[in-house]
Automatic annotation (TrEMBL), chain B:
It comes from Pseudaminobacter soli. Residues 1-226 form the FAD-binding PCMH-type domain. It comes from the Bacteria. The keyword Transmembrane does not apply. SUPFAM superfamilies: CO dehydrogenase flavoprotein C-terminal domain-like (SSF55447), FAD-binding/transporter-associated domain-like (SSF56176). This is Xanthine dehydrogenase family protein subunit M. Keywords: FAD, Flavoprotein. GO terms for molecular function: FAD binding; oxidoreductase activity.
TrEMBL record, chain C:
InterPro entries: Ald_Oxase/Xan_DH_a/b (IPR000674), Ald_Oxase/Xan_DH_a/b_sf (IPR036856), Ald_Oxase/xanthine_DH-like (IPR016208), AldOxase/xan_DH_MoCoBD1 (IPR008274), AldOxase/xan_DH_MoCoBD2 (IPR046867), AldOxase/xan_DH_Mopterin-bd_sf (IPR037165). It comes from Pseudaminobacter soli (ex Zhang et al. 2022). Residues 20-133 form the Aldehyde oxidase/xanthine dehydrogenase a/b hammerhead domain. The keyword Chaperone does not apply. Keywords: Molybdenum, Oxidoreductase. Pfam families: Ald_Xan_dh_C, MoCoBD_1, MoCoBD_2. Residues 152-166 have a biased composition (Basic and acidic residues). Residues 145-167 are annotated as: Disordered. This is Xanthine dehydrogenase family protein molybdopterin-binding subunit. GO terms for molecular function: iron ion binding; oxidoreductase activity. The keyword Methyltransferase does not apply.
Length: 177, 332, 711
């Protein structure tokens, strides 16, 4: 046979199992969904819940644009099968502000111009919130290391670090009293 | 992704009964724990299980330090282990290797067991557009040999596979003589980490000695590996969030300013986490004098085989050993 | 006017939308009933499709249709060339025949109800190939003369230029440098992957697309389907980075529209990251020989640049690879030649600072080598060769602030403390190196249009079919409009990203501020004058109250004759400090200082973002970026974001300093702006590699400088 056969030839198709009933808790609300077992949390958010603030930049955990908080910890939503995160509390960028009141890091991002195209921004902010909460925002060097899972192709890193420092100072003083 | 049935068993025995097989591509049933590598491989159509068995909530996630040493439950996350005060104090090289791995997000999710079972980053393995990959499709050939191979191994290779084991953690653990605790339908067993991964040989698709249905339940590190002067050195093209070009894990038992015993392992260069006993022997009783260290480190090149683009790793890994020993030796 | 908004560091007007996740990018629109399309791609670089069998795919649950060349409707593909399309050759036609022109070429489209179903079914299309020998190894291609060289300013030039006799002068030179510099293929890799949603309503087509040029997408897709351009509306309010990848209308846009036509419902196609390496262009691999001859006093006597770049076998993409060599430094004898290496790959395209960034890497590396050979300070060498005018065009520069840039950046950097000997500066184990390079990029100004509407309540709406891939068009145009209207910014609503709005040139080549900005200004001045006249008042709000109905004005701007009287470019100087681990070969950039003379700066805040972004891009280019092209089959094995390394946070230098020197240029365009998006990346890579030489004594002439090259 000339040339190579496509990988599909090596394996026959099989019919997809029935959709699963999945209850997702996102930004404090419960959503009952019928999902393919293959659906990732990111695709569930974007395609099923129309919460498109979490961005898809690779689907492979390599860019960080899909970062959300799960039970308060940052994770890449593209690396989670939605059906396996039932019962977890998911916070996305849409759930960060209190009504019209932006989270201090959101406000700092605007003030510091910590983005250009804005596509990595949700992930940067969610990762930045976690970075501050974890106590990893004590110096620019520490922030740079602990934010390295979030690519910014526009190269706004310097401003992102400044915004995280600003917000860390604000939230720190809030906590302190 | 190919379709699969998702199983969420209620207890470990039920999971084991499903006889999933980790670390192979031809297995019809596979486990998923943290999932950070599995989901990538599913997305890229590299792995195509018919059934995916979730281990969520079924495995021990405790981290314990006692007189026997360190015990890491298989489900403990990379982040939890890296932040654990006693790990940081007594087994700092483990924390260091972990903090040099992946991203904070992945470390929050990825588990100890999964880390040891993550698959190679060999790009020919991960791109199904390449027909030939003996790891992915046994007998299909190796695209890395004769291709761009800067990413590939120089130690433990065979004519069938030159893929690198990508784990940083495993490099540190193998230097500390860690043991993998395994549970399975046939009962529990313990496997020294050094024997856990297979060399590719003629069967690169079989990466570990795990049998069908077996899962990693814990990793233990003996107490005599505690309190050593250690360093995990990772060389990479960018400053963070990247797999190793070359890495070296070094733990030293010092006798004044001399080395009583050195434990040394390499990453980024081997088809499995690579211990270098010949270097360790040569360093025993040695001072930290650079020429002496270089001489000993040169022994790491024994049996190393470059493929062209990765020839530099043979030199670089020796330098990494020397530097890591110097840094570890200078610690107090 | 008492409201100074131009020149103010104003926060982005779309900032709130971006930080709350409400800014909507192409794939995030939702057309009723939209299905998902996934492209099937070839796994050979050249040949014919032997057989293609979609039976299994079609039988998969949820699959609506599978299109291949066997069943796809024949498309008219009427002639169309946008400014960003190569002059020579013809774009790839999709699913029209069995020919394979490049690895990863679209050969099918699967449309299914869900994304998961479509992705899976695409795997099940069985293909066999009649493969043919392919040329995919750039190292084995004999470069040929291109038909023409198209420069960024839209000028077409001969690919070979001469001034004086460079060969003789080089042979006679007291000091000579003759070296070859290589830059591998690089990919734009915007974090947003390309995506298109297509929805037909009769013969009317709506496309939500990631694009840097919506009006051209409309025209091109209209030509493909043989319908009037007015029938196609392209919507693209936010673009998640592009850096040039969104300048052309790539095959997936046609596929989305075709899929929607066949399926009879809207179809969304979002490329995977791997697909981004097979169909949205890239910076071509370049090989450049640069020879410099100089007198002992440093004065250049000969400059030769012989450069070639890869392109595809079906289109002749040719970038401005030799432009800057002709005028950047004073030299009586200059020869440049530009050639192309056609291969069975997909067509490369403009990527941030196309041409210049590659050109300057070679030229400014060679200048550094010359400085070393002369034992002369690299800044001094450049000052001694500072031209009084553009010696190629024989025109004065409209403005040129190189001297001020060298001075300001050197002073901020502390350049006078540099010890010239390589390896002479250390920080413990690390070798410290300081290097610099000159930067330049043309001032591009192309015809553009805008419309302004004043409302009786004293607010304004301004629109133009421009794009904002990140520089801040939303914001800067609002500033320009507010300034021209004399209104506070919050009373002005500027909108972009819709092909129904007045036409603009492509959003690239740093021309948006000059072109669209001038159009916005003109439209606003026009409608304001009309309002004041008709309302009979000096105050616009009062005038509009009196007018009592909306007033509209449109404006078209185009360059005047300044280009015939002046050579118009932005200039800059970049200084970098690196730390190199001599044992392990790792290089980290510690500081970058860039000074730029780029005319008037509309918004220093967003401008600084562009500049630091260009620096990060330059770090990637210098130290890590390399799309590996498999010489056996043209695949890109590292076609992802893990093995294709781009800079991360930890790669950002602790010190990034941007100096925007005062520069007033009345000639370039009505706003006096030159643009900074491209020049910000120019000169960064050679500043870094020159610093690496200073640190180590090693001259690395092939990018990227990964650890193996410094062992």
């Amino acid at each position: 046979m000339p040339g190579a056969s496509s990988p599909a030839a090596a394996q026959g198709y099989r019919s997809a199992p029935a959709p699963l009933d999945v209850v997702l808790r996102v930004n404090g609300a419960e959503h009952r969904l019928a999902l393919d077992a293959r659906t990732t949390l990111l695709d569930a958010l974007r395609e099923h819940l129309h919460l498109t603030g979490s961005k898809k930049g690779c689907g492979l955990g390599q860019c960080g644009a899909c970062t959300v908080l799960m039970d308060g910890k940052r994770v890449k939503s593209c690396l989670n099968l939605a059906a396996l995160v039932e019962g977890r509390e998911i916070t996305t960028i849409e759930g960060l502000a209190q009504g019209d009141q932006l989270h201090p890091l959101q406000a700092a991002f605007i003030e510091r111009d910590a983005f250009q195209c804005g596509y990595c921004t949700s992930g940067q902010i969610m990762a930045g919130v976690a970075c501050i909460n974890e106590g990893h925002a004590n110096s620019p060097e520490e922030i740079r290391e602990w934010m390295s899972g979030n690519l910014c192709r526009c190269g706004a890193y310097d401003h992102i670090v400044a915004a995280i420092r600003d917000a860390a100072a604000v939230t720190g003083s809030t906590r302190g009293g | 992704m190919y379709p699969f049935a998702l199983e969420r068993p209620r207890d470990l025995n039920a999971a084991l009964a499903l006889r999933a097989q980790a670390g192979r591509n031809d297995a019809p049933v596979e486990y998923i724990a943290g999932g950070t590598d599995m989901v990538q491989l599913l997305q890229e159509n590299v792995r195509r299980p018919e059934k995916l068995v979730s281990l969520a909530g079924l495995l021990d996630d405790r981290i314990e330090v006692g007189p026997q040493g360190l015990r890491l439950g298989a489900a403990a996350t990379m982040a939890e282990v890296a932040a654990h005060a006693e790990v940081v104090e007594r087994f700092p090289i483990i924390a260091q290797a972990l903090l040099n791995s992946a991203s904070p997000q992945v470390r929050n999710q990825a588990t100890m067991g999964g880390n040891l079972l993550q698959r190679t980053r060999c790009p020919y393995f991960r791109d199904v557009g390449y027909v030939s990959c003996n790891k992915r499709v046994p007998g299909s050939g190796c695209s890395a040999i004769g291709g761009e191979n800067r990413w590939n191994a120089v130690l433990g290779t065979s004519e069938n596979c030159i893929a690198v084991n990508p784990s940083d953690l495993a490099v540190a653990l193998v230097a500390l003589d860690a043991v993998v605790e395994v549970g399975g339908p046939g009962g529990d067993r313990s496997i020294p980490l050094a024997d856990f991964h297979r060399l590719p040989g003629d069967t690169p698709h079989m990466e570990t000695v795990l049998e069908a249905g077996e899962v990693i339940t814990a990793i233990t590190v003996p107490a005599d590996a505690a309190g050593l002067r250690s360093h995990y050195l990772k060389v990479r093209d960018r400053a963070s969030f990247e797999f190793a070009v070359v890495s070296a894990a070094v733990a030293l038992d010092m006798d004044g300013s001399g080395i009583r015993r050195a434990r040394i392992a390499l990453g980024g260069v081997g088809t499995k986490p690579w211990r270098v006993p010949q270097v360790e022997t040569a360093m025993a009783g040695a001072s930290l004098e650079p020429a002496r260290l270089r001489q000993a480190a040169a022994l790491a090149a024994e049996g190393a085989q470059g493929q062209g683009h990765n020839d530099f790793k043979i030199e670089l890994m020796q330098r990494a050993i020397v530097r890591a020993v110097e840094i570890a030796g200078a610690r107090t | 006017m008492n409201i100074a908004v131009i020149g103010q560091p104003i926060s982005r007007v779309d900032g709130r939308a971006k930080v709350t996740g409400r800014a909507t990018y192409a794939a995030e629109f939702s057309a009723p009933g939209q299905a998902h399309g996934v492209i099937v791609r070839s796994t050979v670089p050249k040949g014919r499709i032997g057989s293609i069998d979609s039976t299994k795919a079609e039988a998969t649950p949820g699959v609506i249709a599978v299109l291949t060349h066997l069943n796809a409707p024949k498309l008219p593909y009427r002639p169309h060339k946008g400014f960003t399309d190569p002059d020579i050759g013809e774009r790839l036609h999709v699913l029209q025949d069995d020919r394979i022109n490049h690895q990863g070429q679209p050969i099918g489209l699967v449309i299914a109800e869900t994304l998961e179903q479509a992705v899976h079914a695409a795997n099940l299309v069985d293909v066999t190939y009649a493969a043919e020998p392919a040329i995919v190894d750039v190292g084995r291609v004999d470069p040929v003369r291109p038909t023409m060289q198209k420069t960024d300013q839209g000028e077409r030039r001969s690919p070979e230029t001469r001034r004086g006799d460079a060969q003789d002068a080089l042979a006679a030179a007291e000091v000579r440098i003759d070296r070859t510099y290589v830059i591998p293929r690089e990919n734009h890799n915007p974090i947003e992957m390309h995506a298109t949603i297509a929805a037909w309503n009769g013969d009317q087509l709506t496309l939500w697309d990631k694009s840097q040029w919506v009006s051209n997408v409309a025209e091109e897709i209209a030509s493909v389907f043989g319908i009037p351009a007015e029938n196609v509306q392209v919507i693209s309010p936010f673009v998640g980075g592009a850096f040039g990848s969104g300048l052309r209308t790539w095959p997936h846009v046609t596929l989305a529209a075709l899929g929607a036509q066949v399926a009879g419902r809207p179809v969304k196609v979002m490329l995977s990251r791997r697909e981004m390496y097979y169909g949205t262009g890239y910076r071509p691999h370049t090989v450049q020989r640069v020879a410099l001859g100089a007198a002992r006093d440093g004065r250049l006597t000969a400059t030769i640049q012989d450069a070639y770049q890869e392109t595809s076998a079906y289109e002749e993409y040719s970038e401005a690879l030799t432009n800057a060599t002709r005028f950047l430094h004073s030299c009586p004898n200059v020869y440049t030649r530009h050639r192309i290496a056609p291969m069975n790959v997909h067509t490369p395209t403009y990527m941030r600072a196309p041409g210049e960034v590659s050109n300057i890497f070679a030229l400014e590396s060679a200048m550094d080598e010359l400085a070393a050979a002369l034992e002369m300070d690299p800044v001094e060498l450049r000052l001694r060769n500072e031209p009084e005018r553009d010696e190629f065009k024989n025109l004065p520069f409209s403005s040129r602030s190189t001297r001020e840039c060298y001075r300001a950046a050197a002073e901020r950097f502390g350049w006078s403390r540099r010890t010239p000997e390589p390896g002479s500066m250390r920080d413990d184990r690390l070798l410290i190196g300081w290097g610099m390079a000159t930067a330049t990029y043309p001032m591009n100004f192309a015809p553009a249009a805008a419309m302004a509407r004043l409302l009786p309540d004293g607010t304004a709406e301004v629109m133009s079919a421009a794009s904002d891939m990140g520089p801040g068009t939303w914001t800067s145009m609002t500033q320009v409009a507010a300034d021209a209207l004399g209104l506070p910014m919050e009373r002005v609503k500027f909108t972009l990203g819709d092909s129904r709005f007045p036409k603009t040139p492509p959003h690239g080549g740093s021309m948006t501020m000059a072109s669209v900005g001038s159009a916005v200004q003109a439209a606003c001045l026009k409608v304001r004058d009309e309002a004041l006249a008709r309302g009979g008042a000096n105050d616009l709000a009062e005038a509009m109250q009196r007018v009592g109905q909306p007033l509209e004005a449109s404006a078209n701007v185009k360059p005047g004759g300044a280009g015939k009287r002046f050579s118009m470019h932005a200039f800059g100087a970049v200084f970098a400090e690196v730390a190199v681990d001599p044992d392990l070969g790792e290089t980290r950039v510690r500081r970058i200082v860039g000074a730029y003379g780029a005319g008037r700066i509309v918004n220093p805040k967003t401008t600084r973002s562009q500049c630091i972004g260009g620096m990060i891009g330059g770090i990637g280019m210098a130290l890590m970026e390399h799309a590996v092209v498999d010489p056996r089959n043209g695949r890109v094995p590292n076609g992802n974001l893990a093995e294709y390394a781009v800079p991360v946070h930890a790669d950002a230098p602790p010190v990034m300093d941007v100096i925007l020197v005062e520069e007033e240029d009345p000639h370039v365009n009505p706003l006096g702006v030159k643009g900074v998006g491209e020049i910000a990346m120019v000169g960064v890579a050679p500043a870094i590699t020159n610093a690496i030489y200073h640190a180590t004594g090693k001259r690395i002439r092939e990018l990227p400088v990964t650890p193996d090259k410094l062992l």
